[in-house]
Design a protein that fits this description.
The complex is a heterodimer of chains A (282) and B (397). Chain A is built from twelve helices and eight strands. Chain B has 13 helices and 13 strands. The chains are: A alpha+beta (282), B alpha/beta (397).
Chain lengths: 282, 397
């Protein structure tokens, strides 16, 4: 028996936006019968480029239906640009959580959305769909190395078993599992090499260049997140790899400010500048 | 779970312990708890009950051989069907050390199939007999596969998913032509169809208690007289040195009683239970489109039906049935967390449109006409609702 959250059960038993939009502006058709799940997403765009209507039809298990329903709820009201940035993790967030083995249901939602956006923009599916790029690694489910790399990066996956949970690759005969692990090892080696480079690059900057770089990430990546909750942030000093900041607005008095500091501020700075950075509150 | 009446049609997964069985085993927990190996009469008297249980199991299986003391020697009690299967397979390889090949069907239960995979890793040559689209064994291929290097042929008596019954006597004869032993996993067959080992060519047979209204955690292995046996679990002298470990006394007593009752009700299994199954199956076919019944309709267990609801997925169906208190199971990939649908349906070449939406209903003597009515009432709206949501529905019309 699966341990589904109440939200998954709610979206499964009372799915939102079932059906097909008439004369859709975008259609995304992903998965197929042999894979065991498939999703057809259709949407309509208003004059300002916002998704005003979205509907789905899904063949699959409870979590596939719930993920599809959550997807439509998520994207209605979004601009195409916003929708383009939706990840499978956004779908999971709406559902609370999904069992690990069912994560591929949320990935299918993201893929249907990407396919529908490509369709809306008049791009051919081949150009937009990862599945058609690269080399087929998993022949049972037709998954390419490109897709495996993308899913691994987006969800920070390190093992072949996780890849199977997220995009099915390796879940059939299992012959490709070693191949998948090699790809993953490659991805994370590249990643740490790139991180080292980034760290070296940061260390080599002048103090003014460092400040400009940090300020840029704070303005573009961190402030908008804090502002959603009525908070803000100010750069105070840069000392070697230590970034000193002041938390403002609601963040200044928020009891979970420490969490914000570590999970939002530090994480973004490490992601966009260098993994060695630490953050201090002044 | 909700408070709705339970409609349990998943009896190939496990069964309710019959109250008579429970009553029979109960004294062996707090009252007659002695160890049957003890010298004192308090413990020693329990041994007589175990022997009686062995007689009861022997009666159901038609085992007539007795030793000079009048005891059944061809049966050992185990912890489950899986242990019996492993014990049988590894025994065959140990007593025929020069033979390096095993033949089994592609539709075996994992308790046998995964032993096959393990044997391959250990360097044995394992061949898997294919089945046709009704799940019937390719007897010609089987005949070709069995050769003089074959230690063992293992084919289930009845399949847990489709209910298909396999011609085990005939297969045993084929095995013997090449000097191979024959084992059958009869976990699904025992208690559902008549079995008579008295004049059988079968060398080893596995059965499990919880499939026939005894509790979980007890099984038995039949080893024909004259076949050597090396214990799978080495330990004390229990079971005449063939299975170490203090006997699971209460469960063994229960298995004995359950076998006695199974013998008594085997007529009902093939009349009343069969009628329930048939009525459900016929009504489903008559009231809903795009249905297919998987398996060998003419030659299967009386209690089992495996029905595909095309264009929809099994887990969704089961979860919605569950809300009506209806317990069934599915050959769908999603229910197990694996990504491929059941190996049995795939071996049969059931198209993916149907394999993912396969539901197994398996009845027992404890089901009622009312159960069938409730399923017939609950099912059509569920199927219609899910099909309405499916991108494949209507598409192919």
């Amino acid at each position: 028996m699966w341990d589904y959250t109440d939200k998954v059960m709610d979206h499964f038993l009372n799915p939102r936006n079932v059906g097909e939009v008439e004369n859709p502006d975008g259609t995304g058709d992903v998965g197929n019968m042999s894979c065991g799940d498939a999703l057809k997403l259709t949407f309509k765009i208003d004059a300002e480029g916002r998704i005003i209507e979205a509907k789905f039809k899904t063949f699959g298990c409870a979590s596939a239906i719930a993920s599809s329903s959550a997807l439509t709820e998520l994207i209605i009201g979004m601009t195409i640009e916003e929708a383009k940035n939706v990840t499978n993790q956004d779908i999971v967030k709406i559902l609370g959580e999904l069992p690990e083995e069912k994560m591929h249901c949320s990935v299918m939602g993201m893929e249907a959305l990407q396919a529908a956006i490509a369709d809306y923009r008049g791009e051919t599916v081949e150009e937009a769909d990862d599945d058609h790029e690269g080399r087929i690694v998993c022949h049972c489910f037709g998954v390419t190395d490109t897709k495996i790399r993308n899913v691994a990066k987006a969800n920070k996956l390190k093992t072949a078993a996780e890849i199977t949970n997220y995009c099915k690759a390796g879940g059939g005969c299992g012959v490709c599992l070693d191949d998948i692990q090699d790809i993953l090892d490659g991805v994370w080696q590249e990643h740490s090499a790139a991180a080292e480079q980034a760290a070296d690059a940061f260390a080599g900057l002048s103090i003014v260049q460092k400040v400009i770089k940090v300020q840029e990430v704070i303005d573009k990546e961190i402030k908008p997140i804090l502002e959603q909750d009525g908070g803000s942030i100010e750069l105070f000093d840069v000392a070697g790899n230590v970034i000193k900041v002041k938390l403002k607005g609601r963040c200044a008095t928020c009891p979970s400010a420490l969490v914000t500091l570590e999970h939002t501020v530090a994480e973004k700075l490490r992601e966009f500048i260098a993994p060695e950075l630490t953050v201090e509150r002044v | 779970m909700n408070s709705k009446k339970l409609i349990y049609v998943d009896n190939n997964a496990t069964t309710a312990v019959d109250p008579e069985v429970f009553a029979a085993m109960k004294p062996f927990f707090c009252e007659q708890y002695g160890n049957p190996s003890s010298i004192h009469s308090f413990g020693g008297s329990v041994a007589a009950h175990i022997n009686k249980a062995r007689e009861q199991v022997a009666d159901l299986l038609g085992i007539t051989n007795r030793n000079k003391l009048g005891e059944v020697t061809e049966l050992i009690f185990t912890s489950c069907g899986t242990e019996s299967d492993s014990a049988a397979i590894y025994n065959a390889l140990q007593i025929c050390p020069k033979k390096k090949k095993v033949v089994m069907s592609k539709v075996e239960h994992p308790a046998v199939l995964n032993v096959g995979k393990e044997l391959e890793r250990r360097g044995y040559h394992v061949e898997y007999v294919p089945v046709d689209k009704k799940g019937r064994l390719d007897m010609e291929r089987l005949g070709e596969m069995v050769d003089d290097n074959t230690a063992l042929v293992s084919v289930m008596w009845a399949n847990n998913e489709t209910g298909n019954i396999y011609p085990v006597e005939k297969i045993a004869e084929i095995a013997h032509l090449h000097g191979a032993l024959f084992h059958t996993d009869a976990v699904q067959a025992v208690g559902k169809i008549p079995i008579n080992l008295s004049e059988s060519a079968i060398d080893m047979l596995s059965l499990s208690g919880h499939k026939l209204h005894a509790p979980k955690g007890v099984g038995a292995l039949y080893i024909k007289r004259g076949i050597r046996f090396r214990p799978f679990i080495t330990g004390g002298h229990q079971e005449k040195g063939r299975r170490g470990g203090t006997e699971n006394v209460a469960s063994i007593i229960a298995l004995g009683k359950a076998c006695e009752l199974a013998g008594k009700y085997i007529g009902a299994e093939n009349s009343f239970v069969r009628e329930l199954r048939d009525r459900l199956e016929k009504t489903i076919i008559a009231t809903m489109p795009d249905i297919r019944v998987n398996g060998d309709i003419e030659n299967r267990l009386p209690n089992t039906t495996c029905i595909s609801f095309e264009y929809i997925e099994g887990e969704s169906i089961l979860m919605l049935l569950d809300r009506h208190g209806i317990c069934a199971s599915s050959g769908s990939a999603c229910t197990t967390g694996s990504l491929e649908p059941s190996h049995v349906l795939r071996a049969m070449g059931v198209p993916y449109t149907a394999a993912h939406g396969a539901i197994r209903f398996s009845f027992s003597r404890f089901n009622t006409e009312d159960d069938v009515d409730k399923i017939i009432e609950a099912l059509p709206p569920i199927i219609a609702w899910l099909r309405e949501m499916s991108p494949f529905w209507n598409k192919d019309k």
